[in-house]
Design goal:
Blueprint lengths: L1 H21 L9 E7 L5 E7 L16 E4 L2 E7 L17 H8 L2 H9 L7 H23 L5
Parallel strand pairs: 1-4
Antiparallel strand pairs: 1-2, 3-4
């Protein structure tokens, strides 16, 4: 019996070490660059490239002001129309925020949003409560079968 515990512990430790040092995970975010590419067909392609292999052939002209941090990854945004990075914060809207807000306050839009109501007690909440009660019942049965309070 102790030999199986020892083997299980060794396998667990080896698996943890492989996870920590090889994959793209929470602890290795600084080793990867996140490249977001917007295409003509209105799709988005996201690639995670190791920092050493990123832009080796200098096919993308990167402005240092266009590099930003997203969830711990160094992120560059490009399009397939241009050969340089773009700044997603450099956006000028053709519509003013004031006109947009006044349009949102119109009666038609207000009525449309008022008709959509979120149920306070939906099926997911019911199933969550039911599974919690089942879990407590199983714990109680195991406790009583294994001797309970002596």
């Amino acid at each position: 019996m102790p030999l199986t515990y020892l083997i299980s512990l060794i396998v667990l430790i080896v698996g943890l070490l492989i996870y920590l040092f090889t994959g793209r995970n929470y602890f290795n975010k600084h080793k990867f660059v996140r490249l977001v590419k917007y295409k003509d067909d209105m799709s988005v392609q996201v690639k995670y490239i190791k920092r050493e292999q990123f832009n080796k052939t200098n096919e993308i002209l990167i402005n240092p002001k266009h590099v930003f941090n997203m969830n711990g990854y160094t992120t560059v945004v490009i399009t397939d129309k241009s050969s340089e990075s773009i700044n997603p914060n450099d956006f000028e809207s053709k519509y003013s925020a004031k006109d947009f807000k006044s349009g949102m306050r119109s009666k038609l839009v207000k009525d449309a949003f008022d008709s959509v109501k979120v149920e306070k007690f939906d099926k997911m909440t019911f199933l969550l409560i039911l599974s919690g009660l089942q879990f407590l019942a199983i714990i109680y049965l195991l406790y009583s079968l294994l001797g309970g309070v002596s």
